[in-house]
Design brief:
The chain has 449 residues and is an alpha/beta fold. It has helices spanning 3-8, 16-32, 67-75, 79-86, 96-100, 102-108, 113-124, 153-164, 168-174, 193-207, 225-234, 245-257, 297-307, 330-339, 348-357, 369-385, 387-390, 396-415, 440-443, and strands at 40-45, 50-55, 59-63, 90-94, 215-219, 237-242, 264-268, 280-286, 308-321, 360-367, 418-427. The chain folds into 2 domains: 3-124, no CATH class; 153-443, Vaccinia Virus protein VP39 (Rossmann fold, 3-Layer(aba) Sandwich), CATH 3.40.50. The chain contains 19 helices and 11 strands. Strand 8, helix 13 (297-307) and strand 9 form a beta-alpha-beta unit. Helix 3 packs antiparallel against helix 7 (113-124). The longest helix has 20 residues, at 396-415. It is elongated and about 80 Å long. It starts with a helix and ends in a 6-residue tail after the last helix.
Length: 449
């Protein structure tokens, strides 16, 4: 029996109304999966719920409510699959990475006019409301009423809180021992996550050529890993700023516990509210500028330029993508809906141009794309292994958001659609060269730890 015959015969368990809906859903599945390699589709019978299965060699998608199929047809994008998974209308068995990769298939399928009409006709026969949510529905749109999407101080603080003020203990379950929430630096594929993050912190300190007594600023300091590392191993006077209340509280306690109160300070402050001119010898920004907003990047660069001393070094570590600007796509809709409400990315060439326009001289650009893919896979693995503990701090739907988001990001980094770069620049005007003639000092000698 071939796949289509198997699908067509499954309506005997339903009354006429349910049977009509079931047949419509099966026809939609048959159309959607007609070019999907080795996939099968079958209906499972539940108590008053039609459940459908998409099976592939390494995974199975269980669709628990036909509304998902209706939304797939009318939305003409795979985003309803993400919504359905987060809200408990879809479950995944088997290889989660392979299942999430199905997004690429659903992004590119197309139909003749006749096929499209048949899909729409069948979609109208399906329920327009979800029958039930098996988990607490994740409030994907709660930011719409609170954020103006113009990157004001208020909206930026709200956006940071939306993502980072979930629970310090939740993040602690799957981050490394230093609590670094950006990509590691893997010297080999056998490096642990802890090792890779220590490598990254030290790599940045070396690039900045930190020296004892220098004033060092970390913009978007997170849980304090960078400022504590730089003070502990390089003897700088470090200061960090963040908009996250929970990160601030954690960093404050950490500084005290590590005996660094005389060398490290942190504060709740928007980068636009940094005061003074020529204040800091060295500045880092690690995984923060993605929150700034493309329209505000000139203000961001000008502020860093103002507080950095002439000849001082600034390292910007941030995510980019392969398209000009931040247009509405499936990926951007998902990120802004569930993860970073006001996050925006741009091409690395545009980022560099903006830094040069602000008066910086570029000394070094390093691509770390494979490092982030490896980091994300480790984060997902660690999160999955500690799922039950994670559910003590976040809801099932929030757990699913982070699992899906990090898996999709890993695949995107591996495919090359997303990149990440460390850009090292200096503030023009110094007669003294701010960096050595070569990069040898970065890579030779033992690490400072």
């Amino acid at each position: 029996m071939d796949r289509n015959d198997n699908l067509a015969e499954q309506s005997v368990f339903f009354n006429s109304s349910e049977a009509a809906q079931s047949d419509a859903a099966l026809r939609i599945l048959r159309q959607l999966l007609r070019n999907f390699p080795e996939a099968t589709a079958s209906r499972l019978v539940g108590d008053n719920i039609n459940e459908f299965e998409i099976a592939a060699p390494t995974f199975t998608l269980l669709i628990k409510d036909p509304i998902v199929l209706r939304q797939l047809v009318f939305g003409r994008s795979p985003l309803p699959l993400a919504d359905g998974y987060i809200n408990g209308l879809i479950d995944v068995e088997g290889n989660f990475f392979d299942a999430v990769a199905v997004k690429r298939y659903f992004e590119h399928f197309d139909f003749t006019l006749g096929q499209r009409w048949e899909l729409i006709r069948d979609a109208w026969r399906l329920p327009s409301k979800a029958r039930s949510f098996t988990n607490t529905q994740f409030d994907a749109h709660k930011h719409d009423a609170n954020f103006d999407h113009e990157h004001t101080r208020h909206s930026d603080k709200a956006a940071i809180s939306f993502h980072y003020d979930v629970s310090n203990l939740f993040y602690k379950l799957w981050l490394d021992q230093e609590m670094v929430y950006s990509c590691g630096y893997f010297e080999s594929e056998t490096d642990t996550l802890d090792q890779a993050q220590c490598n990254k912190l030290d790599h940045i300190c070396r690039k900045l050529r930190l020296k004892p007594g220098e004033r060092f600023l970390d913009v978007g300091c997170g849980w304090g890993a960078m400022v504590c590392w730089a003070a502990r191993h390089y003897g700088v006077q470090a200061h960090g700023i963040t908009l996250s209340q929970k990160q601030y509280e954690y960093a404050q306690a950490r500084i005290k516990d590590e005996g660094l109160s005389d060398r490290v300070t942190v504060e709740l402050r928007d980068y636009r509210d940094l005061v003074g001119e020529n204040v800091y010898d060295k500045i880092s920004s690690i995984g923060m500028f993605e929150h700034v907003g493309l329209a505000n990047l000139p203000v961001y660069n000008a502020t860093i330029h103002r507080v950095l001393k002439t000849g001082g070094l600034f390292l910007n570590h941030g995510i980019t993508h392969d398209e000009d600007g931040w247009e509405k796509t499936i990926a951007t809709q998902f990120i802004n809906r569930y993860v970073f409400p006001d996050g925006e990315l741009d091409m690395v060439s545009n980022v560099q141009r903006g830094m040069e326009n602000a008066g910086f001289e570029i000394h070094d650009v390093e691509a770390l794309r494979p490092h982030y893919a490896m980091t994300l896979r480790q984060w997902v693995k660690r999160l999955e292994e500690r799922r039950e503990e994670a559910l003590q701090y976040v809801s099932e739907s929030a757990y699913r958001v982070w699992r899906l988001y990090m898996t999709a990001c890993a695949l995107e980094f591996e495919a090359g659609g997303t990149g990440i770069y460390q850009i090292l620049v200096s503030k023009r005007g110094s007669e003294v060269l701010p960096t050595p003639l070569t990069r040898t000092d970065i890579y030779t000698g033992p690490f400072a730890r």
